[in-house]
Amino acid sequence: QCGYCTSGFLMVCHSLSKIHPDADDTIIEQWLESNLCRCTGYEEIESAIKSILNGKV
What is the pTM of this model? Predict the structure, then answer.
């Protein structure tokens, strides 16, 4: 939508991939709590992060 939160999500995703490359759903959710987004839900963002961590992207 507006894209304001995108840079924050990218930084969280990068750090998460370095610190917790095998992160489960709980860890991903905890890390995403630091980013607020009023435009979208977090389901697609979580799905994208899981794909990245699983090497599908």
Answer: 0.75
Q: Quick one: pLDDT at residue 49?
A: 85
The domain tally of the chain equals 1
Print the domain residue range for 43.
Answer: 6-53
CA dist., res. 7 & res. 13, Å (int): 10
Whether residue 1 lies inside any domain: the answer is no
CA-CA-CA-CA torsion sign (46, 14, 28, 22)? positive
Distance in Å from the first CA to the final CA of the chain? 22
> What gap in Å lies between CA 34 and CA 56, rounded to an integer?
25
